[in-house]
Each structure stands twice: as C-alpha cells, then as structure tokens.
Amino acid sequence: MDRPVTRENLRQTVEAAVAGARITDVHTHIFAEAFGGLLLWGIDELLTYHYLIAENFRYTDMPYEEFFALPKRQQADLVWRNLFCDRSPLSEAQRGVLSVLAGLGLDVAARDLAAYRRYFASLAVDQYVDMVFAAAGVDFVVMTNDPFDPRENAVWMAGGHGDRRFKAALRLDPLLNAYESSAGRMREWGYAVGREMDGRTIKEIRRFLREWAERMAALYLAVSLPPAFKAPEDSPRARIIEECVLPVCRELGIPFALMIGVNKRVNRQLGDAGDAVAKADIRAIEYLCDKYPDNKFMVTMLARENQHELAVCARKFRNLLVFGCWWFLNNPSVVEEVTRMRLELLGLSFIPQHSDARVLDQLIYKWQHSKQIIAGVLTDKYSDLLATGWTVTETEIRRAAADLLGNNFWRFVGKKPA
Questions:
Q1: Which stretch of DSSP H or E encloses residue 297?
Q2: Where are the domains of the chain?
Q3: Which CATH architecture has domain 10-41+128-413?
Q4: What letters, b where the CB count within 10 A reaches 16 and e where it falls short, cover 61-94?
Q5: How far apart are alpha carbons 76 and 170 in whole angstroms?
Q6: Is this structure's pTM higher than 0.85?
Q7: pLDDT (tens digit per residue) in 364-417
C-alpha cells in the first residue's frame, strides 16, 4: 500500500528515497579497467588530485617546478603533511579524502597514511571498481573519451573496453578548440580535411564524428569551452559546431553537451590546477536552442553567476537539459543554493549533479556529499507541499529521487540503461 507521508516521517522518507535511488553519473573523467593507466585510483592519486595540489601551494613556498619534479608518492606525502597533519582539513576537497577513507571502513582517526597505502596495495583493480560502485550507489558512469589521445585511441580501435557500467561520451575539445593540429591527425587517419572549411572538409569532419560516435556507442558529444565562447561566430569552431556537430547529433539522435566557463591556465605553473573561472554569455545557448530546435543540448556552466540565467533559459527551451554543479561549484553551500534555485524554477526537470571525478575513489565522496544536500532540499520542498494540504506519497518521493539521479538523463538521451 502506498502510504501518505506525514510531517513526522517526511525527512526519513526522503533520505531513504535518495539513498536508495540508483545513480547514473553523467559526466566523469574515470575510465574502465581496459584503459590501463588512465584509470586512476588509490590514496596517492586522491592526495595529488589537482584541487588539493592548488590548496597545498597556499601553505608552502616550495617552487612549483620542484614539487612537480617529485615522484607522485612524495608529492602525496607533502600534501598529506600540509593539508591533513599541520592544519585542520576543512576544505571540501580535504573532507572528500576523509569521506572516501571512512566510506571504505578505514580508521580516519588514526591519520595513518602508511596503513592506508597498505590497504590500497592489497586490492586488485577489478575488485576495487566493484567496491567503489557499490559504496557510491552508482550503476553507470559516463566517461570523457578523446579519440586524439593515443592511449584511448588504441583501446577503441582494438574493440573497446567491455564493461557495461562505463558509457562513452565523444569529447571534441581538440577538434573545436585546436582545429589546425587536430586536422593533421585526422589526415593521417584518412580523413580528407583541409585548412579551409569547404564542402569536402565539412563532409569529412561529419564522417569522423559519425564513425567515432558509433565506434564508442557515445551517449552524447561534448566540449569544454572558454567563457568567451559565442554563437553565432565567424570562426572554425562555430562552423564545425553548426555544420558538423549538430547535423551528426541530429542524425544519431544524441545530445550535444556544452560545458562553458573554464578560463585555462591563469597560473601556468600549476598545470591542471591552474585553471580558473569567468562568467560566460548565456545568449550563445539561447541562440543554439532557438535555431536548432531538433537538436538536444546538455549544458553546465562553471560560474556561479551564470546559474540563474541558465535555469531561466531551460524554462524557455525544452531541448535544453541543465546538469550538475561543475568543478568550482561543487562545494556544499553552492550545491545547496543552486539545487534549491533549480527546483524552484524547473521542478524536477534537470540533473542536479555529476561527479566530474578524475579519480575512481572520488565517486564515493562526491555522491555521498551531494545526496545529503539533495535530500535536504527535497525535504524542504516536500514540506512546502504538505503545508498546502497536498498529499505526498512514498512512491511519489521515490519517483522524484530516481528521476533526478538517473531517469531524467536516460529519457533525454532517448535510451534505456543497459
């Protein structure tokens, strides 16, 4: 029997529904085991994640080049000492490491890095993948797959990876943001592309996209774009998007995902940790959604200042699906604010979070922390419903949690999870 929910059991009911909902993580940077060294996992990878590297340099005068010249284990030693031993680990990235260790049943209070290393050294990678997926409550993750990376290219050309939990997204950053160098590689692979965007080049780029999307069984095509991105625009990137990417997406019936707002290498000495953020122009998304109503767009934006206008844009265009709290937004106070605002503007028609995980273990903490926030916001919103006299049932709440954490994505891409 589907019981109505009362004020007294509302929080418990919502928390159980969110905890039990199976997750599809729609954007990650983790890989299936077949990709070898591209799959990062373990305590030293967690500690040398670029979020923590940037924080580490807040507390040391060590030259950047000296740090990056060290072996990874020694880098991890320094981060552990600076961020976990010499001061309280209060940042979200620091807390995340501890949540992973606790989620695996390790003794966080011991502060014993050597013991943590022994634990991870005792695990086989296939065993650990299973453990992490179970601990995080994740059924599927969508990878970020770059055919211009020779390590990835070799796996796909050999037939793929064979793990149904790891889905593909065809990443187009080299093609769209560095066309000249990418064109040379494409010519080596037999695609007759030229410097000019003439008819033959357009046709061959489409062929490249179609063949690679089908080879990967890509759920969507994706690109990360700078805050200065504009559409329409007189540039190779804009022409490739409008004359190649969007036609192929329409043909294959898959979305184009745009992640907008990364200001690359504001501190070049920090490498990946040196990227920053700036506000982007929402009019580019309005233009694409309006001019191409038969295309589906997934969009996340990096600047907090863009979040309200992006949600408003999604109210106007049903071919736009807003997803996730990306990168610098993935902090509890901001996730709560953004999730609350999106629910108030979009109801349940968005994807509240993706992990953006680069290290397998991060699935544990990013989803644990996010589910706590999502459950809290949903509890408040269902409390508002009860205050009006509306009857809320357990089935209704479980359906909402399942939609937010998985079903909305699968419906938008037009496929069934398998």
A1: strand 297-301
A2: 10-41+128-413
A3: Alpha-Beta Barrel (3.20)
A4: eeebeebeeeeeeebbebbbebbbeeeebeebbb
A5: 32
A6: yes
A7: 999 999 999 999 999 999 999 999 999 999 999 999 999 999 999 999 999 999
